[in-house]
Amino acid sequence: MRRNAMQTARSASRALRSETSITLRQQTTPFVCASCRRAALQTPSPTSIASQRAFSSAATTRQQASAASSSPQPQREAVLPQTHYDFFPQTFPSGPPPSSAFSPDLKQLRKEFLQLQAKAHPDMAPAHQKRQAEALSSRINEAYKTLQDPLKRAQYLLSLQGIDVEDESAKLTENALLMEVMEAREAVDEVEHEEELVSIRAENHERIADSVKVLEETFASGELEQAAQEAIRLRYWMNIEESIHGWEKGKGGGMIHH
């Protein structure tokens, strides 16, 4: 009886150790289904690898493009006009003479000037560009004042060719013309009543118109020497015009420059 009891106890102990060992193996080894085991054993195909690489490359490209777009781009410097004529391409589509006429459409010139000045006004510029805007606005004003006046326009065109007729030393040597200028000046000084200036002003306007006509012809043909002489002549007539505008009773004409 005792032997049988001991054998039964040993069998029960072995059975308990076996069950414990199985339980421990089940706890330490995670359960994997048959489908997952087959998928894990399969080798990745070249197509799937290529797809993964393509996706990775596309993602990298998008990231680089996004970074490039967000990074500040260098600003291009605005090209400033080289001559007064470049400011007004609508009035002077072909540029300065001889490509275009010496006398422009003054209404069109003023219209374009006002449009340009409205866009370039310093008040329209950001704070950090105020100084540049003021300089540009000043250049536009100078260009307009020069091109609207026939004498300043002629002097400017000649200066572009290296010919200076603004200097007071540039004078005419024609005695007949000098006599005509002196007589016109004396006529203004001798006026007693403002009504007498009407005929003198009309006569001087004719002189100015004749000079402008000569300038139109000489600049169109490229005769710069003759254009320079006529610009000096026009300067005399414009001085007479200033004298007429500056006339005061009992004092005669205003200051005149020769």
TrEMBL record:
CDD domains to which the protein is assigned, alphabetical: DnaJ
SUPFAM superfamilies: Chaperone J-domain, HSC20 (HSCB), C-terminal oligomerisation domain
GO molecular function: ATPase activator activity; protein-folding chaperone binding
Matching InterPro entries: DnaJ_domain (IPR001623), HscB (IPR004640), HscB_C_sf (IPR036386), HscB_oligo_C (IPR009073), J_dom_sf (IPR036869)
Domain (J): residue spans on this chain: 83-160
SMART domains, per the entry: DnaJ
Record GO biological process: [2Fe-2S] cluster assembly; protein complex oligomerization
Top-rank lineage group of the source organism: Eukaryota
Polar residues: bias regions: 1-11, 42-55
Signal peptide: none
Entry GO terms, CC: mitochondrion
Keyword Glycosyltransferase: no
Region (Disordered): 1-21, 42-77
Protein family (similarity comment): Belongs to the HscB family.
Protein name: J domain-containing protein
